[in-house]
Amino acid sequence: MRTNHTLAASSLWLASLSLGLVPFSALGTEELAGRPPPLPVDIGEEITADAVNLFFVFDRVFTQPPRARSANYLARTSMPSSAPYSDYLEYRRGKISRAELVSRLPHVAMIGDSLTQNFYASTPLSMFWRARTERRKNWFLDTDPTPQSIHSVYERLDEVTPLVAIEYNGAGALVAPSRAREGLRRRMIRTRNLSGQARQVLRKKRFPDLIMIWIGHNNTDWVEGLSPLEREHPQEHIREMAARFGENYTESLRDLLDRAKAEKHNVAVVVFGLVNLDGFFKGRRKAEALHARNPAVYPYLETAYKSFESLKPPYQKNMALLGSMLDAEIRTMVGRLQRELKNYPNVRLQYSDALRKVDFSRLELINPADAWHPSKEGHKALAEAAFRAIAPSLEFVRTARASPAAATQADGVRQTR
User: Fold this and answer.
1) Where are the alpha helices (DSSP H) in 139-234?
2) Whole-number Å distance between alpha carbons of 158 and 222
3) Which end of the chain is more exposed for a tag (fewer CB within 10 A), N or C?
4) Could you list the pLDDT tens digit for every one of the 417 residues in the chain?
């Protein structure tokens, strides 16, 4: 036991040292430039990332798997009224293996950033550990059955049909050029950008029936890398950021859709609009006022300024503007790609503003540590909004009945647990 403690302490020291050797920005957007770093820097970063990941190989013991499967799927598929009953009969007759039976269950995947994780700003080592190991306990995937926990999208779907859910999201994930490898900090915390998460999905033999995507918030840090003069006149820079965002998002989404076109089963992709930053900043300004009177309230509120400078009050207006422009790019992209899918009836692409409508001006929905990420109540609100938003796509892939009655029935089940 003492050996494990020593190993953990040594690993945290290495992580602390490594974090200190890199520019402090917890996110960094070097990938957005689309240019590889100089060879010596690239080699040094690769060695550092490999060393940290090797030293931290033990942390997988503390990490819940990013994949969840209905615990009682075998009993449920054996019921004649269940949709997968014919698959169960094939399994019982020995025509397919249990692994193949699981493969035939509905599969749902989540692509996103830290707003789909149980993540928040704190001390550097705590953030490092949480970013690497914290899975589940979020609005998409939570398996805690207690009434006080988050009633996640996965749990709501599980009340309707047995399924497999996989989360690919990671803290600090960007919408970046597909050719750009993740920066050092992202590699150290095992985060992949949108293109990297999409590649993970594409490498799987079993392609999901439903893919949910909510990413782009880290692309709103418009201040990073600008001189004081450029910060005073950022209009052209912001327009260029929005245009590149749309191009990079389209590239990764099109890769997923091309694979979906070739599948024999129906595939739905739901792309969520970004958080309404105007509403969010109303809530954050309330938190800033409380923190000014008592620094123990929202203790890591200012930590966010160090890692995401655009959150500072002078830059919030343009950050909110950029957020709206990125959301407009998402809407335009989805509309354009929908027209390209008219000859592929097995693929459905949906834009949803459901998560954009979640009111983060309400203090109870933002994290009490950093006033930046969702609180537990925030995750609950996101789960409810997302589940209702995906109803048409669920009907399309036949993983659940997309009716208000089904949602009400699921909520009733939750309340009686």
Assistant:
1) 153-158, 184-188, 194-203, 228-232
2) 40
3) N
4) 444 444 444 444 444 444 443 333 344 555 565 555 554 545 444 554 454 454 455 445 444 558 999 999 999 999 999 889 999 999 999 999 999 999 999 999 999 999 999 989 888 888 777 777 777 799 999 999 998 999 999 999 999 999 999 999 988 899 999 887 666 566 666 678 999 999 999 999 999 999 999 999 999 999 998 999 999 999 999 999 999 999 999 999 999 999 999 999 999 999 999 999 999 999 999 999 999 999 999 999 999 888 899 999 999 999 999 999 999 999 999 999 999 999 999 999 999 999 999 999 999 999 999 999 999 999 999 999 999 999 999 999 984 333 333 333 334 433 434
H/E run at residue 213:
strand 210-214
Position 118: which residue type?
N
φ, ψ of residue 162 to 5 degrees: the values are -65, 145
* pTM of the predicted protein model: 0.84
> Can you name the residues that pair with 108 across neighbouring β-strands?
165, 210
CA 285 to centroid of chain Cα atoms: 25
User: Would you tell me which CATH number, out of the four given (3.30.70.260, 3.30.390.50, 3.40.50.1220, 3.40.50.1110), belongs to the domain 2-70+105-415?
Assistant: 3.40.50.1110
Phi, psi dihedral angles at 216 (to 5 degrees): 130, -10
CA 163 to chain centre: 19
Q: Could you write out the DSSP letters of every residue in 189-201?
A: TT---HHHHHHHH
Q: Which two tokens stand for residue 297?
A: 């309230």
**Geometric angle at alpha carbon 199, from 21 and 106, rounded to 5°:** 125
Residue 67's φ and ψ, nearest 5 degrees, are: -125, 135
Q: Are strands 210-214 and 164-167 parallel, antiparallel or unpaired?
A: unpaired
Quote the tokens at residue 165: 């859910």
Place of tokens 């966010």: 304
Give the pairing type, strands 107-112 and 164-167.
parallel
Residue 88 tokens read as 């169960």
Cα separation, 401 vs 153, in Å, equals 14
- 253 Cβ neighbours under 8 A, 6+ residues apart: 198, 213, 269, 271, 333, 337
DSSP state of 59: G
Q: Are residues 225 and 28 in contact, defined by beta-carbon separation less than 8 angstroms? A: no
Residue with tokens 């100089």: 38
d(CA 247, CA 229): 27
